[in-house]
Automatic annotation (TrEMBL):
The EC number(s) this enzyme carries: 1.-.-.-
Cross-referenced PANTHER family: 5-NITROIMIDAZOLE ANTIBIOTICS RESISTANCE PROTEIN, NIMA-FAMILY-RELATED PROTEIN-RELATED, FLAVIN-NUCLEOTIDE-BINDING PROTEIN
Domain of life per record: Bacteria
Keyword set includes Oxidoreductase: yes
Official protein name in the record: Pyridoxamine 5'-phosphate oxidase family protein
Root EC class: oxidoreductase
Transmembrane segments: none
Keywords per UniProt: Oxidoreductase
Entries under InterPro entries matching the protein: Pyridox_Oxase-rel, Split_barrel_FMN-bd
GO molecular function terms attached to this record: oxidoreductase activity
Source taxonomy: Bacteria, Pseudomonadati, Bacteroidota, Flavobacteriia, Flavobacteriales
Gene3D superfamilies the record matches: Electron Transport, Fmn-binding Protein, Chain A
Presence of the UniProt keyword Membrane in the record: no
């Protein structure tokens, strides 16, 4: 199993027993999400922004407008960190102290670069869209020159990363087990409902197979 080495950046300190540096597990968590949170500093203020992303190998792609403050600041800084989290359950304990959550999370650290090659840039936009709904790129009108030139794409190399996962039940103090208080886990998952077609669709246009497959897999 290929693993990321532990560094000062990616080493999990709190709850280290739940940490993983396995690349396959980290990529699976990244691929199961579509939104990440990106941290950056602007005028000495720490800011965190949610944004869409796509992964291709050891590269994360994000995009925005040419003057996107987050991306331009990260390009100036030369490096970035992104975070992805899946909430899998609420852990409701007998005591307030031991309430928790089941989750899968990843933190990625790496160098950044502006994507200038037009072929890679278009492939990056395809990667981001297909990360949302696999295969949907082939169903849409692709960016025209004006849209393409107005879009800024940044690549984040996954230099190192770590995952942290909690997937267990309630952990209460033994002396609390006799209390007349309910405890347990409420599982949570994100599901997709039936697609709602736009009211301005031309007659005869059907929902693409890629969308139907996505809904079926997420139901």
């Amino acid at each position: 199993m290929e693993q990321y080495p532990k560094t000062k950046l990616n080493k999990v300190i709190r709850g280290a027993k739940r940490a993983s540096y396995n690349k396959e597990e980290i990529n699976k968590i990244l691929d199961d999400a579509f939104l990440c949170h990106v941290g950056y500093v602007w005028q000495n203020n720490a800011i965190v922004i949610p944004t869409a992303y796509g992964r291709q190998g050891d590269t994360i792609y994000i995009h925005g407008s040419l003057k996107n403050r987050m991306i331009t600041n990260l390009l100036d800084a030369g490096s970035a960190s992104i975070s992805v989290t899946h909430l899998d359950g609420l852990v409701l304990a007998r005591s307030a102290f031991h309430h928790s959550a089941n989750y899968r999370s990843v933190n990625v650290f790496g160098k950044v670069r502006k994507v200038v090659d037009p072929i890679e840039k278009m492939k990056a936009l395809e990667c981001i869209l297909n990360h949302m709904v696999p295969g949907h790129w082939d169903n849409i009108r692709q960016p025209n020159d004006k849209e393409f030139n107005a879009t800024l794409v940044m690549a984040i190399n996954i230099d190192t990363a770590s995952a942290k996962v909690r997937a267990e039940g309630v952990v209460d103090e033994k002396e609390d087990h006799g209390l007349p208080i309910w405890a347990g886990v409420v599982p949570i998952r994100q599901i997709a409902s039936d697609p709602v077609s736009d009211t301005d669709l031309q007659d005869g246009i059907e929902i693409p197979d890629a969308v139907l497959k996505y809904v079926k897999n997420k139901s």
